Amino acid sequence: MHLADDSRAPQADTPGWPFAVASGILGWILDAFDFFILVFLFPELMARYGVSKGAILWTMTMTLAMRPVGALIFGAVADKLGRKWPLIVCVAYFSTVTVCSGLAPTYGLFMLCRCLYGIGMGGYWGIGASYAMESAPRAKRGMLSGLMQAGYPLGYLLAALAMQFITPRFGWHAMFYCGTVLAAVIIALTLFAPESDAWEQTKMPSMGHIFRALVSYRTRFLYLLILMAGMTSLSHGTQDLYPDFLRTLPFMQGVTVLGMKASLGIAVLYNLAAIVGALIFGQLSQRIGRRYGVMAALCLCLISMHWWAFGASVMAITLGAMLMQAGTQGAFGVIPAHLNELSPSAIRGLFAGFTYQLGVLLTSPVSPLQNFLREHFGYSWALASFELVTISVLFLLMIFGPENHSRDFHEAM
Questions:
Q1: Is residue 73 included in any domain, yes or no?
Q2: Which site among 189, 234, 308, 336 is 20 to 30 Å from 21 CA-CA?
Q3: Interatomic CA distance for residues 238 and 308, integer angstroms
Q4: What is the widest separation between alpha-carbon atoms in the chain?
Q5: Is 189 exposed, middle or buried (0-12, 13-18, 19+ CB in 10 A)?
């Protein structure tokens, strides 16, 4: 493990770096929004296409399964051509496919659109995270790592708010269209942002060199792949089915939270907590190290487990959900910095993005698996047992895993 001393001579800030960081963060917000709109639209999509809830869940699974394809394609292109233009193309691509999802007349076409969307979703994180972390001042890396990952629960939160305020006026189809406004903002910001200095100094001469470098770091790749499988199990296992779980609780019937249906109001609250958690633990990791930052967040998940899955009142469930997401996204708030710091300099866009998204592929059946467990053991035990196993594995990975805290991205590795 290497804990870098932040007191060393500071690296000069890249002029215009806030534009690059902002585009990376906002793109992840949009990515999450376009993914999570489905968790609030189960009844509408089931009615439109005449299919079961399981069929809609499989469209989400296929979205997750296609993310490594996007990470491989867009990551390699970003390592060869730079961060700016691949990011712009990726945002335009997945926003267009999202609009097509809302227009799809049949379930088969809807499934195809969500698969194509998964390519864009998978391609974005590797580019956006490497662009943001490479551009950010080193001393601010932990905080901005948390801020970037906070974009994920913020996208979830915006999806819940859109369900409350947009769908009653414009219909549920509008959920697939409204993200285009943010896409235009991201593209404009990226046009003003500088190219990454770190990429300029460490770029590979050809695609062949890029893929040979990927193979040469296979041991590190395998570790990060397992780590990201655990992290995505933690995240999707606590989020994807939770609104549906809330709707099944008898004491939630007819209850409002923040003036909304309980399942929407609680989702707003736990995503606000998730944003706070990502910021706190991301910044904490700058002080105590990335691994200890993740483990501290996992402890919060364990503390909240009983209330989150077995709470017997609206207040208990709400408290548990908020603490769980603060811990879950707190752990994930460390990941953009940690994963990029452990990635080889010349293939950071591909390496970080591909390990992340291949981990997502390994865990893409999480929702169907939890749904299967629900049918046999009940919703509460299905959620809790799955997450207890996941958290235990993550603790072991953090205890015995490597760290390269606050490394200089301009230096080769």
A1: yes
A2: 234
A3: 9
A4: 62
A5: buried
pTM for the whole thing? 0.82
Q: Does residue 93 belong to any structural domain of this protein? A: yes
Query: Which 3 state secondary structure label does DSSP give 178?
Result: coil
User: Per DSSP, what are the bridge partners of residue 257?
Assistant: 260
Residue 269, domain CATH = 1.20.1250.20
Considering the domain boundaries, does residue 21 fall inside one? yes
The phi, psi pair for 409, rounded to 5°, reads -70, -15
Could you tell me if 210 and 350 are in contact, meaning their C-beta atoms sit under 8 angstroms apart? Answer: yes
CB of 259 closer than 8 Å to CB of 373: no
Domains in the chain, number: 1
Whose tokens are 């483990």? That residue is 295
Tell me whether strands 260-261 and 404-405 are parallel, antiparallel or unpaired: unpaired
Enumerate the β-bridge partners of residue 99. none
Residue 381: count other Cβ atoms within 10 Å of its Cβ. Answer: 14
The one-letter amino acid code at 131 reads Y
What's the start-to-end Cα distance of the chain, in Å? 15
Q: What is the pLDDT of residue 282?
A: 93
**pLDDT tens digits, one per residue of 87-100:** 999 999 999 999 99
> Tokens for 357?
């998204």
Angle at 378 between CA 375 and CA 381, to 5 degrees: 125
Q: If residue 222 lies in a helix (H) or strand (E), which one and from where to where?
A: helix 218-239
Looking at 29-160, which runs of residues are DSSP E strands? none
Domain membership flag for residue 1: no
Residues 6+ apart with CB under 8 A from 127: 24, 74, 75, 78, 83, 86, 87, 90, 349, 353
Determine the structural domain holding residue 374 and report its residue range. 15-197+206-405
355: its two tokens: 């390990």
Average pLDDT rounded to a whole number, residues 330-339: 93
8 A C-beta contact, residue 5 and residue 116: no
Residue 343: left if φ>0, alpha if ψ -120 to 50, beta else—which one? beta
For every residue of 129-154, DSSP letters joined together read: HHHHHHHS-GGGHHHHHHHHHHHHHH
Distance CA 136, CA 130 (A): 10
Task: Check: CB of residue 35 under 8 Å from CB of residue 121.
Answer: yes
- Which tokens in the block code for residue 6? 């932040």
Q: Is residue 339 within 8 Å of residue 129, measured between CB atoms?
A: yes
